[in-house]
Design goal:
By secondary structure, the chain is mainly beta. It has three helices and 16 strands.
Amino acid sequence: MANIFPTVSTAAAVIFVSLYAEAASAASFRSEYVVSYLGLTIARSKFESSFDGDKFSVSGSMSSAGIAQIFDDTKGTVKTTGSFAGNDPRPEGFVTNYTSGKKKKKTEIGFSGASVGKVVNIPPLDKHGDDWVPVSDGDLRAVTDPLSATLIRADKPENVCGRTVKMFDGEMRANLVLSYVSTGPISIPGYSGDAIVCSARFVPVGGYKKNHKSIEYLKNRAQIAISFAPVGSTGVYAPIYATVGTQIGTITIQARKFEALD
C-alpha cells in the first residue's frame, strides 16, 4: 500500500490535477471530488472557480484520505488564472504547493501568450542523467498548465473529444489525445443528463526518465476514460468522472458535488 499514492499522483497528473471546470459569465462555483482505488477513498479535492466573460480563475486543495493517509500524508493547494482565446484556455499564471510527509515543494509557471515564460521550482529539480528525456523550448509553446488544460469549450457535444490537450506541470511535458466514445445519461448532485465519454491516450513528450515503468505503462497499456457534462448553455464542458488504468489497478476520480456560489 505504501506505493499507491505516488502512482495515483502520476495518473492524476496525466489527466488533470482536478476535475472542476464549471463556468459561466460572472459566476462562481464550488466543487468536490473523490479519488478511489479498489472502492476505497484515497484522496479528496475541493475547488472554487470563477468566470467573468473569457477570464477564469480556479483554486483548490487536495489531500490524501482514508487508508492512503496512513502511508502517505499528502496535502496541497493549486491555482491558475487566465482567459480564453476562442475555445482555447490561455493561462497567465499557475502555482502549486504541496507537502508530502516532511517534504515540501512549490512550482510556479508564468505564461506569455500561449507559451511558457518562466518556471520556478522550490527546491530546484534534481540533476538528471543520460536517460532523461529533456523538454525543448519548442515543447513549451502552445501549452497549458494541468489545471487550465481541463477547461473544455466546444460548439457542440461531438467536438468535446476531438482534441489534443498539451500540458506542462513545471517538469514534465505530456499530451492527452481525446477521442469520442459515446454519449449517455449520468446523474450526480447538481447535474442529471447526458455526458460525453472520451477515451484518452497519454503521450509523454519530455521531462521524464526513459523506460520509467509508470510512464511506459500509461503510454502503452493504460486505458483512460473521461466523461464530460455541459455546464448550462455556456459552451463549456466539465469533466465529472474518470478512470485511469495503472500498474496497481484502476484509479477512479468522481465529482461528488457542484454548487453555485451566491
